[in-house]
Amino acid sequence: MKDWLEKHLKELNVTTSMERPEGFCRLGYSEEEWQAIEVFVSIAEEIGLKVRRDEAGNAIARWETEEKGTEDSPAAAVGSHVDTVKGGGGYDGVAGVLCGLAAIKKLKEEGFVPVSPIEVICFASEESSRFGVSTIGSKAMSGLLNKDDLADVPDEDGITIRQAVEGMRISWDAIDQAERPETALKSFIELHIEQGTRVEDAGAEFGAVTAVACPIRLKIMIKGQMGHTGTTPMGNRKDALVAVSPLITFISETAASLTSSSEVPIVATASTIELKPNVMTVIPGIVELGVDIRSVDDDLKREMERLIRQKCSQLSSEFGVTMEVNTLVDNPSIQLDDGVRKKLQHAGETLGYKAFVLESGAGHDVMNMAAKWPSGLLFIPCKNGLSHHPEEFASLEDLEMGTEIIAHYLKSEASI
Amino acid sequence: MKDWLEKHLKELNVTTSMERPEGFCRLGYSEEEWQAIEVFVSIAEEIGLKVRRDEAGNAIARWETEEKGTEDSPAAAVGSHVDTVKGGGGYDGVAGVLCGLAAIKKLKEEGFVPVSPIEVICFASEESSRFGVSTIGSKAMSGLLNKDDLADVPDEDGITIRQAVEGMRISWDAIDQAERPETALKSFIELHIEQGTRVEDAGAEFGAVTAVACPIRLKIMIKGQMGHTGTTPMGNRKDALVAVSPLITFISETAASLTSSSEVPIVATASTIELKPNVMTVIPGIVELGVDIRSVDDDLKREMERLIRQKCSQLSSEFGVTMEVNTLVDNPSIQLDDGVRKKLQHAGETLGYKAFVLESGAGHDVMNMAAKWPSGLLFIPCKNGLSHHPEEFASLEDLEMGTEIIAHYLKSEASI
User: Fold this and answer.
1) Which domains does chain A possess?
2) How far is A118 from chain B (nearest CA, A)?
3) Is pLDDT larger for residue A147 or for residue B71?
4) Which of B234, B250, B259 should be substituted to probe chain A, the one whose Cβ sees the most A Cβ atoms within 10 Å?
5) Which of A54, B90, B109, B220 is deepest in the core (most CB within 10 A)?
6) What SS3 string covers B230-267?
């Protein structure tokens, strides 16, 4: 099993070695992503699955039941993605489709005969790094894609989503036909690396996820006054960077203190900053700060946003600058299916692995699928919690554990 | 006089209107700078000066004395530059060469006959915005140009100083031949917009400058740990931006408090910041902060640097990050000639203008000239102290005042 996982891990990453100092780069709807999806298709066919590409470019590999009359029954599905951020790792996404395929192979070798069909889905364009829009393939499949809003969103080279999609020989106008009826699937699960260390920190071996924390994202524009760094006395400045610094501290400290007084954690990060003019001899006149806030408790996120707005108003008067807070994104968090979560947890525990029940701080394809089908998410550990990074790593042991848990879960899910 | 100033102000800015929302862009050793220097040459020739371009591209316009035998006497010189930063204003530099030329015109019209020659010098490449190196032309003239260190310094397009200079049909290898002997000049003065509001704030009309505060510049590299903003608990982070924020506040507050307890002011600015990866979903792993420190009191600058280093070491332990402080520049401040300062002050006061004696927080060509010749610097006010900005503005009244002060000063300086 480990040999198979290792070999196909490299194949799905279109590489001969997982040691890649520069990481991987398979952006959504790029030739590089398409190449990896083609590898997925070959492996799926190799283990005897029938594969089709849908109208959004998702690849759906299906194990048809041998019992006549149940071909059209709702399928038990598992899936993830193979695209990456720039300089990303080889496990985020890939681990999910790899373990899904490996689980099928294992079930076939064991002579398992499914009653319901089983599917492994490789979604297109999960990462938001190219267009600032995530999970395009799974949005299309679950009917959540807002085609008109997205068509003209450009990447950093000015290529729009529509152009990128059509570059992959997919019709943008027909992309929403990828939507599947509720009756197509009976459930959906995704396996993903945790991208954190809470499972390990809890002394557990895998995570059974209850909910996906979707973000509130703020863009805060601070306008002060540019001036010469040498000729503007300290008492006569409206330095936008000096004005915003206490806010960065405040965001970090407030998230920590809200976490310690709440039932579920909240994280908040000032993650991007742009200075104008960002020149050694000029006092920063304008700062744009990007803030990412996540918790599965939507009220807690809104409380955090309220406290940030309050602090901005206090800092504006204190430093004589203006601070304008724009809410870019305010997505309610997604509850996953409790039944599916318990089945996944049970499957793992039956196999002797210790479970930790937690929420996901990151978004995944499963959050779209959960809008239409009972859905679950399984975490396997990754080294130091590192992801979106060339040193992202999950052990073959943990990939094998993930495969076993999926196989065990599917065995019961596809038996009725 | 005002009409002449207004007309030639526009000509030197190669524009038909000073209202330019996008500002001016005449980078050092660019075609745009060269075009403005050519305008300087024509105006100088129009008013009867003999102009030569030296080996560094500086233009030297000379009013030869009519008394035989004094042609080679040391000249009384005045000058500044015509290059700008990107999106700069039309007065920084231009005001100095314009008022210099206007003063000569005035003296000629009054029938003044100089005993010593008079020169108006238009220096090449004063701004540091293209190569990060300032005052290249005046460095060359005063023998301070370190040719070997500079040759390969690139601009943001990768063009080196050597390439840019040679693109202007100047031999890089011969550029140091622009150096002039001490006997070439008897003194040098520069008129410049203040780029601050201390003259106005003091209720005065012009500034007589005692010294030029040269900067200490630091580049501080903070290394924390990247991580997913959604999956890394608050207590488990090494956020480089959170770690550096208290430093930004500290720099601003410490400069203010050192100023209030010292005889001369100090200014310190965290003016540039670069985040890696600067992506909404990733905790900032690396921050690079640029700090500019200026005072005419070099000990005070060094004390500020010491306090910053001390604070960095405290913050490193507190936030579990590394902070590496590199001193990019540590230039001792330049004392200007007290005699020349008094003559300028006297000239202005004789004409009925109120003087304010101050130091310059910004560097100017005069700081290089002061290394070799008795030198002085005259400030005229500029609106709201704004410079390096499209809205930079000095009134025609103040340009006329500057012209009169230079003319009055030159009349006595060139009479012996």
Assistant:
1) 2-211+335-413 (3.40.630.10), 215-330 (3.30.70.360)
2) 30
3) A147
4) B234
5) B90
6) CCCCHHHCECHHHHHHHHHHHHHHHHHHHHHCCCCCCE
